[in-house]
Batch of 2 targets.
Target 1
Amino acid sequence: MLRETHVNALILLALLAVPLGALVLDQPFIITLATKVTILALAGVGLNLALGQGGLVSFGHAIFFGLGGYSMGILASHAQSFTPLMEVPFVIPGTNLMPVIWIVAIAVSCLAALVVGALSLRTSGVYFIMVTLAFGQMFYYFAISWPAYGGEDGLSIYVRNQFPGLNTLVPIQFFGLCFAVLCAVLFLVSRLNKSAFGLALTGAHYSPVRAMSVGIEVTRLRLVAFVISGGITGLAGALFADLNRFVSPTMFSWHTSGEIIIFIILGGVARLCGPIAGAAAYIILEQYLGGFSEYWQIYLGLILLFVVLFAQGGLIGSLSKREIVRG
Amino acid sequence: MSTILLIEQLLNGLQFGVMLFLMAAGLTLIFGVMGLINLAHGSLYMVGAFAAAGVAGWTGSFALALVASLAAAAMFGALIELTVIRRLYKRDHLDQVLATFALILIFSEGTRWAFGSFPLFLNIPDILSGTVMLPGGIEYSLYRLTIIGIGLAVAAGLFLLISKTRVGMRIRAGENDREMISALGVDISVLYTLVFALGAALAGLSGALVGAIQSVEVGMGEPVLILAFVVIVIGGIGSIKGALAGAILVGVTDTMGRTLLPVIFGSFMDPSAATSVGSALASMLIYILMAGVLVFKPTGLFGQA
């Protein structure tokens, strides 16, 4: 058995080694898959803060993933057609600069998370799951019925957005960028988890009454966690849209929310690098089983059922020795 | 907009609400008695619709199709309760959500494998097709009226079952104190399977009845499932009365919103913009209603704190 930090280092090294190996072997498709894993893992890292650390089972994180995606889609489509986003009261032009898009995606997602979180956190437990699921569906239907940005058909962006100093159209460079973002976010989240805020959040997860009695404002704490969590998932959404150069209402669908939860469960709840292991496992399963049978999701369902019923702790849980108490 | 059209839409809303009630009642019953959140409830709705479409295609009888939908959904419900669901009662909600999400994947892909990706069609039986004249000169679809009737009859039956019969007494006792009723010699695991199968049968019936209006396809259950969640949040969890009130509120609000909002916006905007803004807002209306209920009464209209 290994220590969790060692497992984490191994996972990150593997995630870096696979596309580098693919570069040597000239397999651009593998690099794209690794980029997809990196981005989906980032979305999972975001949700893991709320779900793993905070115990908030949000079934609506597709909201933020989708908003991040549409932030990119809307800004880039205006840059693509040289039309301003807004003319009154002041002109806001579109943009194809990733750093600007990321900031907008994070800001929009955080704002949405603030509203959705403030409403959803009035409830708890099963209610919270149902309410977040319902708000997710609201955004989904809105994206479908709002015709301005493609409606049901989605929105194509023909050229990947730019990052100063890089050629983002080269797969390995785009992967490097995503990987750097993931590492930066992981560093921030690990610091956050060890901070007073993170400890209070975990405490409020396992014993809300005790946390309250020592003077922690549980609801406000959870709301802050939910907002940060939404912002990270929103950033992942913007990157995912850039990977595909396409956004559609599917990003908002409840199925997307479910998949992000699956990454966390396959990897291990509340484990820092759990979502990376989980997203990698999911993409490998999708590729392998998808080639093996058109109905690969049956097998995915069976595997998921097995993990939930018999193998709690996920991949990292079975590789490392620290046991996490589950509430 | 004429009054007749308005009343017609009101009835459509009622019919939609009654369907949502059949879904929400099962969900809320299962949650109330077993403390379980079941995402696969939408799959049971789909199973009911497919069983009905299959049997109707084979025998041509709509009555047999309805019986088949009840039987198939109850059977699959009991099957998943015995194999998977009963392992989840003591788990946290996250495990319940994931395991039932896994069941959705299995059910959906299994159905796609068995029936193919193309939607099936379930025809309205001849005696129920056509329209009837309601008082006030309103012509209304007989089939939809029948659905409203069946739904209200099921609601009445459920109230009687729960408040008057011995099984209902046990269900209520199970909601209050699980350990006490098993200590009193009630076989709690049989009761659980029974309640789960009952909820599943209601979902299956609902799927079959709606299947004749819409198409029967894989994935038809999940949008309805999420609407049923909205109903439960509005009505209050564990309360059949709340489920009925919430379902009718959601059904009527959604249907009327889709009809009225574009018209209302049309009174001060140009028509094409009014249609797009109105329909986009109409698709969000019930969620806004839910948000309103959360602000003023987070436990739902009929829920207990």
Note: Strands of chain B lie at 131-134, 138-141.
Target 2
Amino acid sequence: MLSRLFRQLAGLVATLFAASFVIFAAVYAAPGDPAVFLAGGRDKLTPEKLAAVREQYHLDEPLVVQYGRWLWDCLHGDLGRSFKYADQVADLIASRLPTTLALVGFATLIFVVLGVGAGVLAAVRRGWVDQAVVGATTLAASVPSFVAAIGLVSLFGVRFGWFPVTGAGSGFGGTVHHLTLPALSMALGALAIVSRVTRQSMLDAAASDHVEAARASGIPERDIVRRHILRNALGPILTMCGLVTAGMLAGTVVIETAFGLSGVGSLLVNAINTHDFPVAQAVLLLMVTGYIVVTNLVDLVHPLLDPRVRAERSAA
Amino acid sequence: MTTTQPLLDIAGLTLELPGTARPLLAEVTLQVRTGEVLGLVGESGSGKSTTAKAALGMLPAGGRTEGRVTVDGTDVLTLRGEALRAHRARTVAMIHQDPRAALNPVRRIGDFLTERLAHAGVTDRRAARARAVELLGAVGLPDPARHVRQRPHELSGGMLQRVVIAGALAAEPRLLLADEATSALDVTTQAEILDLLRTLRAERETGMLFITHDLHLAAAYCDRVLVMYAGRIVEQQPAPALFAHPRHPYTRGLLGCSPTLGGTAADLRPVPGRPPSLAESFPGCPFAARCPEAEPECETWAPVVSPLEPEGGPVPNGPPVPAGEAACRRLPLAASVAPATHGATGASGASTASGASEASAASGAEAAR
């Protein structure tokens, strides 16, 4: 168990290292010169001034040296200073992160409850319920999230006035109230895939002999669905929910823009538009870390759900 | 105490599925009495398991059913909802063929047993736990207190089969359906399990339907043996008589397929052809195509199960026990008796040839014991 944990941690670090280089190089290779921006635009720009700025921000050094410097600072907890705001990048992210995390958490809650629920319903009540679930979730998935956002805003925000249409709110109740529509628009697209995976996984589990055996021994259908079908179907469902949540961490920008939320997504887009290297790199690194952490967590939980996985791994 | 009412009584059970050329089950009639072991033998797809599942009220959905299935006086096929669940939970229990497939791989052995117990009336958790350990001990599993905390993949096939039997016994059922309960096990484990089942039957007067494809095993273990072919019963005899003197050509064919001690390779005579699929239909006897003794008339003769002559003649002061039944046109007795007397008591008009064969069957029975 410990050695497996260690292996997983080592893999995580290696992936992060590789990702950090790709991120750094990609931002470095992006068109446009940050030094021009830092020097205050092209007007009245002298080559001397540009060179001075380059030297001040170490932009004149080779890529690998810059990367090494950045990585070294990152490892010491210093993500650098924003070119644009001149603030510590860590502070910028810290002020934006809670909104994004709350949004993704809320959206995850919605798509897990509704998606898994719809999938279970479709698998248990075949026929028209099944078709209705598949049809409705496919429709929901085919609508882009910003279109869904506009629809939800015009219906629940403007016509009924139940929910605020912008801002993140304060306090737990306020946050939930403000984030309901954004989280719902994000979750809608995930409903189709999660409900489909749940349904298929449930059908596969229901075809097992032990389900038939349980039925033959007079166990009520409710218990069979819960303890013998859903319980055994959880593996693929958990994996899919983990992947979707991890993907959402990096995909909040559209919804943040549509609902005027200042989260990490909008921070990233602004940073890229203004060549704010340190911020863009840090946010990307954070997103990659989030993705890797979530998928590794799923891997860690998997053996708890299926003891056979545990046995295979310890034998290997 | 005479057997007034059979524990399991299946009468004329016919099951047709849409899209198949022949019925899954055709006119299946059988009885299992309290404390009796009835063997059910046949090739794969002959309808053995389907017959057993009928006793649980588990027939394939969408099928058309005729006939009656009663267990302990209850008409099983009309049971619905809670009554059907109670019937499955308390009256009849099935021991499944593959124990590894019959157990939920992600749940503990103890949970499997307590779940069965909960629906058989033991609702107190602590009592159910204790009873689960007790049951595992009763089926001869060493260190039962440890095994209740284990999961199926940690146990061997023989141990799992014992767990499945313990699960079936949790309900203290009146009727046990053993569907190839020992086929997947090695011979020593098989012997232990069979011995265990025999003890349980003696202790609890449980009736048993013992499904197997091993005719020798059936003959050694069961009181009576019933041979099925293509969803029909082709022969039914007390086990020793069937083994010593099979009447139906198919039964003889099955016996010819089993190697015997001291026999040569030439003694093995496989039944030619394959068991019929559900896409094939038969105007006459379904076995005619593979039967070495078939005559042209067999192709059109609708099979009827007819009684064979009773062993040892009629018993004074009581109804004579039928020696057996078979469904073959060529059996002299079957041809001379009026049809539609399934399970009838006493058969008259036995030919001398049949009488002689019964005598040899009786001596064969002695030898088998």
Note: Chain B touches chain A at residues 53, 56, 58, 84-90, 93-94, 96, 98, 101-107, 115-116, 119, 151, 153-154, 167-168, 171 (CB under 8 Å).
